[in-house]
């Protein structure tokens, strides 16, 4: 039976069935025993039997089909669009305002955009059930839990012919086979960005490019992302562990210790805007960087600045053998959408090549479009020549040294969070 | 005469005891809604559960179901864990910054209240001017001034020293940021207290042979104690919860304050949101103790004044 896992109390006795500690223990124990599925226990209110809400976690080697459920049906084909307005819930600065205007004209409705600063904030509001939007932009590793928690509804592909425009690597993605609940929005790598006038490129272009973050030559001008997963993964890539959810406590601890070293060695700082804004301002000479952040960076340079000093390397393209993260964001239709047909039409609109490229020009994050010739991105000046290394190629998703982040179960997430708390308190 | 008017008002409505409470009711309800309801919500999150799928805190509204384990974790963290270092650092930052505010702010308030004869309005406007600019904007201005190519480094270079990495996680920069940001909030109440001080008392001190220094130390300073205390309380409360000053002027783990930790628990690693709520309440209780000292002091002074 379909059951919302938040209802983990017995309505007759009003007793909570598991404490947080018990829950973490159970979720961890079950998660550890199943490679691709973390079964999460919830009590069944009406009969007292256990109901199991499953978060289906796909991996590239073991792709997952997200389950369909009678209680969360997809919309019928051929329905007329609602009168709107279409309500979109998205990251801040993650949709070109011109693209929104064009979507309004194309769909013939008004569009209301509400933004959030991080996915934690978005999820917190969405699961409270107190916000009401039609379209949302989850990261790929959140799709599985959004299906299990019935936040998003299945997509009727009859409305989305433009799905055919998407790279084959992502049209049938491992986290949601058949794109049943989500369509890809943007792709990005996690790499290293620097200013050539402050950092010697030869110090980055080494066998283990991550070592540059531990190079005291760049003390005081180095920054890392204030993001527990990305930054701990970066260190784990440096140490050859990778972003595997199966990392041991000792491996995670070693990553935290390596980050703690940086406090005195490098005067390290953590920021979220350090790559796209801090590098142009000269606040940082070297920063971890999502490829999309650094593509946007030239627009943030001061008028008398020279953006052409910006450089980017995805370590999986570097000399040695180290790996690096690559990921994608998606667009989904929320289960509680008041205008689901419009929402489908919007997804189709965003997968149109012209619209996707126009949006890219402002957002800096690249859409995985077949028709988009990567060389032409430079020729057409969407991306400057000196940052052509930040263009994501379809084959990057097939690269053995590219690793996609996989959704963590509770125990794995807790392990990283505890390590991160230690890192952030450090020094 | 004000006293007669007051008496007349009291007389006119004196028969109806509900009138004064009724006047206060809208304000009291407003305060109750804006304090009690959010406060209860914070407790409900601290004592609540974790959504098993999204790992986000779910408030538990029923007190019978409250689970205090997050307080256990937070207190264990403060007394012997990572949080202890952050809490100690926060206390030191706030104490040093408050002391600096007193040292810098007192002469300014004293000067404007006592020594300025002409254009007092202009001086007062000057004291109020920082309030016209948003705190965040004032901090962002410092980020530019202290940046690698900022004016501060240009000046340092011009006088023959090596440029410094001011924003690289320096305790003194964060403390000075706090002082700069909160100083106007200290000066204003102190100014008010010095300004309304009875000048005849000072004249009496001088007539009785006290030197200017003696009359300051024996009369002005003790009489402005309330103003200092009010100013210190006013700046300490927001300083304890501040997180964007260390964020903007440093960003290093070396300068993290309690506010940064709460921000991280709630906004970034929100599966620890319950711990964030518990830490918020622990901080609130600690601040309430400070407030209690202030209130008791006021009570004592008021009593002394009556006697």
Topology:
The complex is a heterodimer of chains A (427) and B (307).
Chain A: E1 9-10, E2 15-16, H1 20-33, E3 37-43, E4 50-56, E5 86-91, H2 97-107, E6 111-116, H3 119-128, E7 135-136, H4 143-148, H5 168-171, E8 183-195, E9 222-225, H6 228-238, H7 249-266, E10 269-271, H8 274-281, E11 286-290, H9 291-296, E12 310-313, E13 324-333, H10 340-350, H11 353-363, H12 374-379, E14 402-403, H13 410-425
Parallel strand pairs in A: 5-6, 5-7, 9-10, 9-11, 13-14
Antiparallel strand pairs in A: 1-2, 3-4, 7-13, 8-11, 8-12, 8-13
Chain B: H1 2-13, H2 19-46, E1 49-50, E2 57-58, H3 69-78, H4 82-115, H5 120-132, H6 135-146, H7 151-158, H8 171-195, H9 199-207, H10 212-223, H11 225-241, H12 244-249, H13 258-268, H14 273-306
Antiparallel strand pairs in B: 1-2
Helix pairs in contact in B: 2-14, 3-4, 3-14, 4-8, 4-11, 8-11, 9-10, 11-14, 13-14
Short synopsis of the structure:
Chain A has 427 residues and is of the alpha/beta class.
Walk me through what this model shows.
Chain A is α/β, with parallel strands linked by helices and 427 residues long. Chain A contains 13 helices and 14 strands. Chain A has three domains: 9-56, no CATH class; 86-185 and 326-397, D-Maltodextrin-Binding Protein, domain 2 (3-Layer(aba) Sandwich); 188-325 and 405-425, Periplasmic binding protein-like II (D-Maltodextrin-Binding Protein, domain 2, 3-Layer(aba) Sandwich), CATH 3.40.190.10. Chain A is globular and about 60 Å long. Helix content of chain B is 75%, strand content 1%. Chain B has helices spanning 2-13, 19-46, 69-78, 82-115, 120-132, 135-146, 151-158, 171-195, 199-207, 212-223, 225-241, 244-249, 258-268, 273-306, and strands at 49-50, 57-58. Chains A and B meet through β2, α1, β3, α3 and β10 of A and β1, α4 and α13 of B.
């Amino acid at each position: 039976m379909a059951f919302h896992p938040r209802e983990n109390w017995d309505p007759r006795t009003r007793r909570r069935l598991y404490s947080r500690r018990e829950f973490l223990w159970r979720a961890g124990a079950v998660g550890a025993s199943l490679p691709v599925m973390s079964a999460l226990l919830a009590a069944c209110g009406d009969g007292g039997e256990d109901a199991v809400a499953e978060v289906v976690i796909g991996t590239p080697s073991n792709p997952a089909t997200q389950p369909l459920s009678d209680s969360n049906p997809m919309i019928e084909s051929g329905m007329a669009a609602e009168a709107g307005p279409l309500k979109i819930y998205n990251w801040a600065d993650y949709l070109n305002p011109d693209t929104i205007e064009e979507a309004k004209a194309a769909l013939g409705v008004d569009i209301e955009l509400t933004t959030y600063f991080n996915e934690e904030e978005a999820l917190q509001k969405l699961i409270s059930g107190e916000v009401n939007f039609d379209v949302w932009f989850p990261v790929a590793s959140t799709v599985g839990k959004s299906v299990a928690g019935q936040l998003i509804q299945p997509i009727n592909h009859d409305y989305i012919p433009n799905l055919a425009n998407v790279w084959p690597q992502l049209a049938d993605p491992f986290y949601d086979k058949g794109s049943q609940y989500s369509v890809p929005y943007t792709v990005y790598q996690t790499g290293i960005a620097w200013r050539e006038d402050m950092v010697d490129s030869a110090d980055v272009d080494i066998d283990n490019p991550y070592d540059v973050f531990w190079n005291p030559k760049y003390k005081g001008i180095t920054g890392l992302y204030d993001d527990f997963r990305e930054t701990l993964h970066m260190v784990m890539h440096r140490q050859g562990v990778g972003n595997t959810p199966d990392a041991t406590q000792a491996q995670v601890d070693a990553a935290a210790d390596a980050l703690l070293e940086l406090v005195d060695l490098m005067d390290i700082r953590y920021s979220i805007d350090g790559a796209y804004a801090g590098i142009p301002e000269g606040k940082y000479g070297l920063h971890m960087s999502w490829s999309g952040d650094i593509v946007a960076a030239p627009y943030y340079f001061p008028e008398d600045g020279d953006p052409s000093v910006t450089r980017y390397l995805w370590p999986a393209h570097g000399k040695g053998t180290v790996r690096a993260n690559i990921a994608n964001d998606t667009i989904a239709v929320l289960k509680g959408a008041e205008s689901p047909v419009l929402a489908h039409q919007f997804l189709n609109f965003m997968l149109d090549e012209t619209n996707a490229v126009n949006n890219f020009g402002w957002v800096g994050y690249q859409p995985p479009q077949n028709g988009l010739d990567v060389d032409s991105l430079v020729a057409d000046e969407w991306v400057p020549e000196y940052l052509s290394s930040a263009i994501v190629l379809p084959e990057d998703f097939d690269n053995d040294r590219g690793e996609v982040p996989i959704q963590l179960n509770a125990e794995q997430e807790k392990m990283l969070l505890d390590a991160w708390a230690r890192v952030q308190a450090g020094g | 005469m004000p006293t007669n008017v007051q008496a007349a008002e009291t007389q006119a409505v004196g028969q109806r005891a509900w009138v004064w409470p009724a006047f206060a009711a809208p304000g009291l309800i407003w305060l109750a809604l804006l304090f009690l309801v959010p406060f209860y919500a914070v407790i409900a999150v601290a004592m609540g559960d974790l959504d098993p799928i999204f790992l986000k805190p779910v408030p538990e509204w029923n007190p019978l179901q409250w689970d205090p384990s997050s307080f256990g974790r937070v207190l264990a963290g403060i007394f012997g864990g990572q949080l202890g270092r952050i809490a100690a650092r926060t206390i030191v930052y706030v104490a040093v910054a408050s002391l600096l505010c007193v040292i810098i702010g007192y002469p300014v308030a004293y000067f404007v209240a006592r020594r300025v004869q002409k254009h007092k309005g202009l001086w007062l406007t000057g004291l109020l001017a920082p309030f016209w600019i948003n705190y965040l904007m004032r901090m962002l201005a410092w980020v530019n001034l202290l940046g690698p190519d900022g004016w501060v480094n240009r000046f340092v270079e011009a006088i023959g020293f090596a440029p410094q990495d001011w924003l690289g996680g320096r305790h003194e920069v964060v403390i000075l940021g706090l002082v700069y940001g909160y100083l106007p909030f200290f000066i204003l109440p102190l100014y008010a207290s010095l300004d309304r001080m009875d000048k005849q008392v000072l004249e009496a001190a001088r007539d009785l042979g006290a030197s200017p220094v003696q009359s300051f130390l024996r009369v002005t300073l003790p009489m402005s104690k309330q103003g200092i205390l009010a100013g210190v309380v006013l700046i300490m409360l927001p300083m304890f919860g501040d997180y964007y000053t260390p964020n903007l002027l440093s960003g290093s783990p070396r300068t993290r304050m309690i506010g940064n930790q709460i921000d991280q628990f709630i906004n970034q690693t929100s599966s620890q949101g319950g711990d964030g709520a518990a830490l918020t309440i622990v901080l609130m209780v600690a601040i309430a103790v400070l407030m209690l000292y202030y209130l008791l002091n006021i009570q004592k002074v008021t009593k002394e004044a009556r006697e």
